Amino acid sequence: MSSESVDDRQVMLATMRPDTLKRIEKAVLDLFSRQDFHEVSLLDVAKAANVSLQTIYKYFGSKETLVYAMLDVMLGRLAERMIDHLQGIDDARERLRKTCWVTLDYMDKHPAVMLLLFTAVPVSRHKNIRIYESPELMGAFLGVFKDGQQRGVLNNKVSSKILLDVFMGIIGRVVLMHIVRREDRSLIDQFDELFNILWRAMSLTE
User: Fold this and answer.
1) Closest among 162, 157, 151, 164 to 91, alpha carbons compared
2) How do residues 114-147 score in pLDDT, each as one tens digit?
3) Model pTM?
4) Crossing angle of helices 63-86/3-13, nearest 10°?
5) pLDDT-derived band at 3, boundaries 50, 70, 90
6) What's the confidence (pLDDT) of residue 196?
7) I need a surface site. Which of 42, 148, 188, 197 has the fewest CB within 10 A?
8) Structural contact between residues 24 and 70, judged by C-beta atoms closer than 8 angstroms
9) How far is CA 92 from each of CA 16, 154, 163, rounded to the nearest angstrom?
């Protein structure tokens, strides 16, 4: 999908009634978290959202585009929270700690979003999720890692993008398996130890 078509999709979504978008988002989360991607049809989504199939086709056109668009909306909320929580924090370790907390808290509270991301979208298609190219969100993440490297706190023998991959890799795997195992204890309750593990993996401190 070209960047132009992604931008066009965002413009079109802005014209949709908020309550309609909310119903479609809920339908996508409910259906795709309980069934495999190929088992859900656009008609299923339309019925669950109480909208016409014509409306789904008008705004999305395909099942893949529908999922990408909904993930844009959902992960966009994470971007807003991330940027807001990092305001005014100068200490490099505390910035990373806050980044980790906001990410984990969001994933802990929205397991259906994580299942949708991890199971319905192949890694090769993540580039079609606009938020992954968001200068706001990615800039916030990479800014934390670059700042830590410049201050000699985080490992500077690899690129900041690799540190981002380490961060996302650890958090993503932990969250996915937490959901799959249906653990009762929330991840945020284990945050201090999880952050210590992450810090030891990324910092220059022994």
Assistant:
1) 151
2) 888 877 766 656 565 665 566 666 777 788 899 8
3) 0.76
4) 80
5) very low
6) 94
7) 197
8) yes
9) 41, 9, 14
